[in-house]
Amino acid sequence: MKTAIVWFKTDLRITDNETLVEAILKNDQVIPVYCFDESHFTITTNGFQKTGAFRAQFIIESLIDLDNSLRELGSSLLVVKGKPEIELPKIVEKYNAKRVYAKREVAYEEKQTEALVQTELWKLQCELLTFSTSTLYHAEDLPFSIKDIPDVFTNFRKKTEKEAVVRKVFEKPAGINSPEIIDLRIPTLSELGLNNTKIDNRAAILFKGGEREATNRLNHYFFDSHAIATYKETRNGMVGADYSSKLSAWLALGCISPKYIYQELKKYETLHTANESTYWLVFELLWRDYFRFMMKKYQTKFFQKKGIQQKDVVMNANKAQLDNWINGTTGIDFVDANMIELKLTGFMSNRGRQNVASYLCNDLNLDWRLGASYFEQQLIDYDVCSNWGNWSYLAGVGNDPRGNRYFNIEKQSNDYDKTKVFRNLWLP
């Protein structure tokens, strides 16, 4: 009897999950596993928690939902805590598994972990099989190799849209044969070294993890409210749930896939309307793809001060200024309101992110990597590729062909919060 393990990571779903589908198809028994990687709950070299309480809570909720979905299919989720390269081989040995199926990684630390796991599995004559499940377009379908992907997004987008095709969504499995049904045991926030936290009620949306919540949000934004039809006009909003899709957190943790969103969007366009707004959501998904492919292309350069451009940037190291930025006490009301929102909710609008990043990089001249690391700690929707890609972009060391992208904070606050509704919501 062939037994395989499915190692869930940031792909916490059963619909459009090639990893799970392939494991079920090629093996007699499948054991779904999630490992709380202890390295994800440490303090980074920049002094921040790698995973903050908001995202950790979202992960916990997503795992509960995933376990419920697996149980409906005749299986369950085995949750462990530790180093994946230690914990996964233990499970392999216990069940005499010959294959481990997992999402393919592209970022440096994640690739390192993947390599360590693979080395330990080889010792047990167990194979690690990985699948690309995070992007709208599959890397193999792009009209260029990874090393030849243009460093300017527009060039990437135009050629990809013209020559590549989005693959079909994988249907959720009809059933899973597992050796035993176990009781779900998930570490608490305190066991992960984090304080219990609650999203502030003023939040634009009260995020809750899980594939069901992701689907509910999509259905609301597309088919119930039809907010998608005006997305291009409202996407720079800052107050309320429906100015943007808010799908980013579920995308980041893989509770929903870009392909599934695309499929449902095409369905909406067929039933209702196709316009610039519906296209703009695809445009944003393409940006997300782009940063992932860029991460694969440039690896550690994305985390270096000089960025992928290897550009010298003069920065200061004023800790008091950094603390004021983090705590929303800079004295610049538009910046402060956004930073308080992030601190109390784990979320910030795209408009807000661009402004606070520009302020840290261009007005304070602080190391952009400190901002990126703080976002890594705080954001529910943290995605390693998008976060570091966007921060390096704003800092002028990434993919922006125009160099430093300076935001005039006063003009921005007048343009996007003219009546101070947002600032009054978050400032005392």
Attribute tags:
single chain, alpha/beta, Rossmann fold, Serine Threonine Protein Phosphatase 5, Tetratricopeptide repeat, DNA Cyclobutane Dipyrimidine Photolyase, subunit A, domain 3, globular
Instruction: Report how far apart the termini are.
Output: 64 Å
Number of domains: 3
The major pleated sheet works out as: 5 strands, parallel
Taking strands numbered 1, 2, ... along the chain, how are they ordered across the largest sheet? 3-2-1-4-5
Regions with pLDDT < 50 over 5+ consecutive residues?
Answer: none
How would you describe this structure to a colleague?
With 428 residues, this protein is α/β, with parallel strands linked by helices. The chain has 17 helices and 5 strands. α10 packs across α15, α12 crosses α13 and α14 (368-378) packs antiparallel against α15 (384-394). The protein is globular, with a radius of gyration of 21 Å.
Task: Note the topology.
Elements: E1 3-8, H1 18-26, E2 29-37, H2 53-72, E3 78-82, H3 84-95, E4 99-103, H4 108-123, E5 127-131, H5 153-163, H6 211-224, H7 231-234, H8 248-252, H9 258-271, H10 276-298, H11 319-327, H12 333-345, H13 350-363, H14 368-378, H15 384-394, H16 409-416, H17 421-426
Parallel strand pairs: 1-2, 1-4, 2-3, 4-5
Helix pairs in contact: 3-4, 10-15, 12-13, 14-15
